[in-house]
Amino acid sequence: MAWIRCGRCDHPFDTHFVLGSTMLGPEIVRCRLCRSPLESGRREWHSFSAFQKLKFGFRSLLYATLCAFAFGYIPFTSYYALWDMPRHDTLAFLHHTPFFVLSLVAASTVLVLQLWRVRRSYRRDHVPAPHPMARWLLDGDFALQFKALLLLVLFWIAATGLGRWLRSDSTRGPRVRDSVALRYCPSSDSSEKRS
């Protein structure tokens, strides 16, 4: 992971995986700390070659797929592990509506964000550089991979915490567990009857 810093005040303003970043963004920005202009190392959409645009689309689809898998699979495995219920296969979460919806929302969010970044790049063509940088958490051009990993960790903690809370509740826990078990994990007796 590369950390990009301001050459004047050494303040980090961007981070990305060297081989995984799309490198789309404003070429010249103002440092959040010292306000001095600096080169970001990124390029605008109109400066991309046809191959770079194709690579941008491929990586966008790849990130959407990874986020769909992560945000659907993590709560699925956390919930089933906490209830000590078996999982039939790795992609079983796609057959259950709540986890499938989470996957769909995650993938759609990534794709919409990438299209929004391209639109922002077009709009920056009419604004003179250097471009001001938004607050770190709200900036849609820099450190997106790091923010996605941070969000994934927080999401995993929240999903695990919710499962533990349901399991520790003496009245709600067994009721939720039994309903999930009956819906997604049929007993061996019922499977024998069907056979």
Reconstruct the topology from this structure.
Layout: E1 2-5, E2 12-16, E3 28-30, E4 37-39, H1 50-82, H2 97-124, H3 144-168, H4 172-184, H5 188-194
Antiparallel strand pairs: 1-2, 3-4
User: How many strand segments?
Assistant: 4
Helix content estimate: 40-55%
Overall average residue pLDDT: 78
Structural class: mainly alpha
Q: Tell me the radius of gyration.
A: 22 Å
* Strand order, largest beta sheet: 1-2
- Gross morphology: globular
Q: Element order, helices and strands?
A: EEEEHHHHH
- Domains, number: 1
Number of helices: 5
Instruction: List low-confidence stretches.
Output: 186-195
Largest sheet entry: 2 strands, antiparallel
Strand fraction: 5-15%
In whole angstroms, the N-to-C terminal distance is 53 Å
